[in-house]
Amino acid sequence: MSSKNKYNPQPESSRSTYILGGLAVLVIAVLVIGGVIWQSNRSKPRNDGYGGVQNSEVQVALQADGVVLLGKPDAATTIDLFEDPMCPYCAELENKNGQELAQSIDDGKVAVRYHVLNFLNRLSASGDYSTRAVAASECVAETGDAVAYSAFHAALFSPANQPKENGNSDHTNEELAQIARDAGASDTAAECITTGAKVEQASAHAEAGRQALAASGATGTPAVVKDGTVVDALSNENWVSQL
């Protein structure tokens, strides 16, 4: 075959190849950067800087079944929130929507029934961290200090405090008590946590919460339920404002 019949790329063809290749790289880079920005915005706390509940009219009560009710007596609506202190997705929800939810509670738009579960005990270093965190939550709620309870709840799920699943350590009762003190809880609450006074009943309450979760139709935690309907809280970033 003569050289005249061979394919010989021309300068224009080579230049087009480089241009197309460069555009492809640029498009990929834009998509990657866009994805990073989208993910960053997706996990960014809403209403950042508000903190926990602040309204003195907000009340907190530990109910007989271990559910903690937080809200104004005349709140427009009430939701059920199921979570486990070891659950990373629960922490994600708290980090993103906790402050927004706190303001809605302050404004009387919503009250929250917190069901704190313990099915992730097995993934904690101590083997019973979730149960002890449930007990700590009940100790703080029982004092009736809504502001302290809201702050303590947020602290339990903060990146600084939430133990890692299958991690090498979690918090002792004394450390949980200090987290409660830092959140503004009373010495009575701290002593209740330190002595483990509510651990046994917390285990029974967590089991009742697990059964309530199963009955709600939700498949796992975190789960938000309003009027018997499961709310898509993780995927719908506007769920709080739409309650």
TrEMBL record:
Membrane-spanning ranges: 18-38
Gene3D superfamilies named among the record's database cross-references: Glutaredoxin
Family the entry assigns: Belongs to the thioredoxin family. DsbA subfamily.
Domain of life (superkingdom): Bacteria
Protein name: Probable serine/threonine-protein kinase pknH
Entry keywords, A to Z: Disulfide bond, Kinase, Membrane, Oxidoreductase, Redox-active center, Signal, Transferase, Transmembrane, Transmembrane helix
Annotated ranges, domain Thioredoxin-like fold: 68-241
InterPro entries: Thioredoxin-like_fold, Thioredoxin-like_sf
Molecular function terms, GO-annotated: kinase activity; oxidoreductase activity
